Amino acid sequence: MTDTSWTSDVAQTPEPGVRDYYELLKPRVMSLVILTAAVGLFVAPVPVHPIIAFATILCIAVGAGASGALNMWWDADIDAEMGRTKNRPIPAGKVTGQDALALGLSLSVLSVAMLAVFGNLFSAGLLAFTIFFYAVIYSMWLKRATPQNIVIGGAAGAFPPMIGWAVATGGVSIESVLMFALIFMWTPPHFWALAIFRNEDYERVGVPMLPVVKGDRVTRNNILVYTVLLAPVALALAFTQIGGPIYFAVAVLFNARFLWGAWAIWRRDEATSTADKHKTELRVFLQSIGYLFAHFLALALEGALRMAGWQMDAWPIWF
């Protein structure tokens, strides 16, 4: 079990600021959750009143923030040793681990309960499972136990569009499953590119990320394989009720770009100088963030055009 007692010995600021607590919620991750959940809700075939839609997206965002706070509470010991995370609120001594735990648990209960009120019991149950999956199954178990941590744990980040869809429809469909699959298949190559770049950090704290356990060569092979498998999943969405020619064009463009980046990672020379080492991986990692935003914004645009009566009847829908 993670030892969080050390946080009590860290010199605390007199009063943690609002920004310190806000940082516990992982706002950058939350922005992606908000987008994907909102798109899942917006493109669903059942209309939702704008006030209900806003309230439910807020609940999902709060649930995502709760997961982030619980993750930071549990990982405070290793966060203090990693260059990328050492300035987070707990290791930096701005917030205690106990406060982060209390915040995470409180927001978890609040978000699930309120989503049951504004959405429905199914979507609330899905949100509760997502928080549990990220905080317990991924953070407390998989992350420090297996190099497949990010593969299995990536499901937690893939649930938000399914939750948004479930708020509108009360269930799941091929469209929501494909949105889930898009994020699920995107997560490993996205995160492994960063893991190669930050390999020394993970090795120092004993987290068995794939580059630490299997090395860069195996990780690059896996990045290429997952990126190849991701492309047909992304393209399949174009031929559903929520897809269309605009989404198809975006998917072709961004998957070709992602595949080119994965290929560049795969063929990179191991003898690269220290100054240039892993620049390719960092570039692909940053580009992969735009990849996911582009796909979901394209789905949102297709939904807006359908609402405006611009649906192309000739566009092939296979599902």
UniProtKB/TrEMBL annotation:
<dbReference type="GO" id="GO:0005886">
    <property type="term" value="C:plasma membrane"/>
</dbReference>
<keyword id="KW-0350">Heme biosynthesis</keyword>
<dbReference type="InterPro" id="IPR030470">
    <property type="entry name" value="UbiA_prenylTrfase_CS"/>
</dbReference>
<feature type="transmembrane region" description="Helical">
    <location>
        <begin position="29"/>
        <end position="46"/>
    </location>
</feature>
<dbReference type="InterPro" id="IPR044878">
    <property type="entry name" value="UbiA_sf"/>
</dbReference>
<comment type="function">
    <text>Converts heme B (protoheme IX) to heme O by substitution of the vinyl group on carbon 2 of heme B porphyrin ring with a hydroxyethyl farnesyl side group.</text>
</comment>
<keyword id="KW-1133">Transmembrane helix</keyword>
<dbReference type="Pfam" id="PF01040">
    <property type="entry name" value="UbiA"/>
</dbReference>
<keyword id="KW-0808">Transferase</keyword>
<comment type="similarity">
    <text>Belongs to the UbiA prenyltransferase family. Protoheme IX farnesyltransferase subfamily.</text>
</comment>
<keyword id="KW-0472">Membrane</keyword>
<feature type="transmembrane region" description="Helical">
    <location>
        <begin position="223"/>
        <end position="239"/>
    </location>
</feature>
<dbReference type="GO" id="GO:0008495">
    <property type="term" value="F:protoheme IX farnesyltransferase activity"/>
</dbReference>
<dbReference type="InterPro" id="IPR000537">
    <property type="entry name" value="UbiA_prenyltransferase"/>
</dbReference>
<feature type="transmembrane region" description="Helical">
    <location>
        <begin position="52"/>
        <end position="74"/>
    </location>
</feature>
<keyword id="KW-0812">Transmembrane</keyword>
<comment type="pathway">
    <text>Porphyrin-containing compound metabolism; heme O biosynthesis; heme O from protoheme: step 1/1.</text>
</comment>
<dbReference type="GO" id="GO:0048034">
    <property type="term" value="P:heme O biosynthetic process"/>
</dbReference>
<dbReference type="InterPro" id="IPR006369">
    <property type="entry name" value="Protohaem_IX_farnesylTrfase"/>
</dbReference>
<feature type="transmembrane region" description="Helical">
    <location>
        <begin position="285"/>
        <end position="305"/>
    </location>
</feature>
<feature type="transmembrane region" description="Helical">
    <location>
        <begin position="95"/>
        <end position="118"/>
    </location>
</feature>
<protein>
    <recommendedName>
        <fullName>Protoheme IX farnesyltransferase</fullName>
        <ecNumber>2.5.1.141</ecNumber>
    </recommendedName>
</protein>
<keyword id="KW-1003">Cell membrane</keyword>
<feature type="transmembrane region" description="Helical">
    <location>
        <begin position="246"/>
        <end position="265"/>
    </location>
</feature>
<feature type="transmembrane region" description="Helical">
    <location>
        <begin position="124"/>
        <end position="142"/>
    </location>
</feature>
<comment type="subunit">
    <text>Interacts with CtaA.</text>
</comment>
